Request: fold
Amino acid sequence: MEFEPVIGLEIHVELSTKSKMFCGCRVEFGGEPNTRTCPVCLAHPGALPVMNQQAIRYLARISLSLECSVPEKSIFHRKNYFYPDLPKGYQISQYDQPFAVDGQLHVMLDEKDYRVGIERVHQEEDTAKNIHGGESGRIAGSTYSLIDFNRSGTPLVEIVTRPDIHSPQVARAFLNKLKNTLQYLDVSDCNMEEGSLRCDANISMRPVGDTGLGVKTELKNMNSFKHLEKGLTQEIIRQTELLKNGEKIVQQTVHFDVTTGDISPLRSKEFAHDYRYFPEPDLVPLIATAKFVDGIRAEMPELPEARAQRYMKDLELPEYNAEVLTASRELADFFESVTEKTSASPKSVSNWAMGDLSGYLNSTGEHLATKSVFPEGSNICKLSPENFGNFVKMVDEGIIGVTSGKEVLPEMCKTGKSANKIVKAKGLTQISDQSELEAHIDEAIAGNPGQVEQYRAGKEQVIGFFVGQVMKATRGQANPKLVNELLKKKLSG
Amino acid sequence: MVLSGCRLSWNREYVNLLRLTATEALELMKRGEISSSEFTGAFLSQIDRHDDDVFAFLNVTGESAREEAAAIDASASGRPALAGLPTAIKDVLCTRGVTTTCASKMLENYNPIYTATCVQRMKDAGIVTLGKTNMDEFAMGSSTENSAYGPTRNPWDLERVPGGSSGGSAAAVAAGECVWALGSDTGGSIRQPAAFCGVVGLKPTYGSVSRYGLIAFASSFDQVGPITKNVRDAHLMLQFLVGKDPLDSTSVEYPVEIPPLEDRDLSGVRLGIVKELVGEGFDSGVMETFSKAVAMLEAAGAEIGEASLPHVEYALPAYYILAPAEASANLARFDGVRYGLRAGDTSGITEMYEETRRIGFGDEVKRRIMLGTHALSSGYYDAYYGQAQKVRTLMVQDFASALGQFDMLISPTAPTTAFRLGEKTGDPLTMYKSDICTIPVNLAGLPAISIPAGLSEGLPVGLQIIGKAFTAPTLLQTAYSAETAIGFGRVSPLIEGQD
Reply:
């Protein structure tokens, strides 16, 4: 019997609002512990929560971008459990009346379209951060624990998908798409390492062709998309083996060890919670009027698909270029400001941006200076849109050769200098001076009579050999187009 | 030496300062007849004389009270509206830098880092704070016997309880240990002790007064209000308590003006006696006093009829599910991690939690946390919490219908007069029934006031008047006219003794 996986995801997104969900403390990553706290987020006696309106606007943006319907009334609940990082002893969350329901997100993978249903989107608050002393860094076996309440009460949006995903690859592609969407919405920096985007996955197996759901397990707190994909792959193997041996799947949380690649079950006691949800009496119901929702719709930032269409239509980019560029808000924003600030050809700019520039950013981990949200402490690339545009123009106009360009661009990124300066300093300007080139060409022809014979006998591809000789002699600075023209003239002459 | 009396300069009449109402005292202070320092000193002396017996105060801030009073006396012009009035504050309200215990071992040494909005508003209006008053631990109780620091005694009879949970505040007013006090009312905690102590207690409409800084018992019921010597003082204090607080999402801008009280009778006022809240289960003495008071209201022009709250028998059980459910979450923050008590010599977080809460909470608090936790548990939620919410809706409908026929509803405030210490501590259910007349009002979030109806065997009996939501002006005017019609005019022996 063949089995197929059924996967549903729960994603937590920390919003990048100025202040916390229910108090006025600033939202920021890191910093001196316990410096951004107040009676509310420390849960002092008598303190009360007040809803952050900006967070609700961000929540609405997310919900609308996922094509959810937003009921007029949603309410907050208390989710009760004891843990030192939860100062009130309950988390304010939403339960059976969430902010938004029934949405979808389409994902393209290997030119196939996958629709992933969104079950719900709701608002809650983040916990504080426990730091456990002792060797393991976990609470078990620690000699002491410290708590940093700076994160306590940070606005958190939970997005729950339907079990519509049937491969780890689609799961990863979904998260990539979601992350990009969230970045376009300007609602979160989506930094997984700092925990501003976290993902849990529910997974079960069923015989291919079945429509029911099997017993599921949960993979918790995957801290990168790559690990999520790997973890799911491992869990699929584990469950499939069990089922093929006629064994039963136990509903439990499993842990994926990223170093060994092993899946191990967590003790069931650790997640056998009864959260005793009940309506939060300290908050009034959240009313999303049609006017509010329309207002949010009107102020929605342009999403990737719409932007790709615009690039194709207004800037005449090929579909592939438009899609690749808009798949990263950062790259797209940078591209756009280059085309606004310089007269470089959009298509050439996009090619360089997708190629060498992206390569540079990937290898250094730097980010482009755009208005997109970045996690604190990211390295910003020194390349300005103006310099980039002028660089592309210089290449297009033949002032710099492509080969030299590949050397110049990383230097521009590193130093922030203009292409002009670097080219001059390194003497990399392309040689388009006819007499200088002719001297090199004459030398090449004189030194290789055999090849000249071949060319003249009709073997025209030998011209490449001569171009190579000239390039070698000029250290790659010769204008290849001009060299070609001159060579043809001389060889046939 | 300042005792409880002084002679007024304009007619050399001797006045027992402890008998003065806040309104009278303000007038005398404004005219320069008495100073806030004299007035404050009189209460501090009375506290010295009697509070070892009464134990209304958990913490008397005498020194700072004298300083505040002296500062008021020194400021010649621009006196704020409540300047110099010596006020007692229930220890459920956070006061920055002043120990706030909620009468619990859990918060024995807890110094709040902020002041409750309602207290701050009173302070901004110039009050002098005398200290923090005793109460049932975390406001859970009807006799103040659940205080971790010992019970408060009733100034009318020191063998009896003052009611609760605001027993300390009510006893302080009745004993002449403050001119007025702040209390809080979750199921009757202002009105029932006011009734037992022969003073006035007002529970405003839910949402009128900010709860920010009020240590939560049951968030959807809790409301702060005045405990005073008469209706006029309650009317005065209320104006400084109400209003939207940006820090409390459930607070609202009080929707109507609160005009001055007028001297008029009860002509044209339709009062409905709640038939389910009289008769069976009520002390005959209470019923007798209540009936006499009703006759006086009728004589003053009130139209008296019979009203019904058909579902009121379910109010008590519904309350004892909903309030403990909310409390079970509200009290989860007392975990020994950040402030308050932390049990020593424990290994591991779970044992620390368990031991801290075992030592820190009293029996009644534990009982209610367990009740509430159970009621919210998976598999029981619908049967308990869900059903109780339905009862709450029915109570709202019952009141709406009864208050459609009458301007206001009336009942005794409690089925008995003040009972003896220890009389009901062994039987929680009997104790809970002490709030049978007041709890339905909290379920519906309505405003209600208790005023003295008379004495029964030397002990005060309260008359409860219940109004529609956000109608404090008419409720207070009616209570004022009723107070005049009844003409109670008695004070506890502890004040009388200083005449």
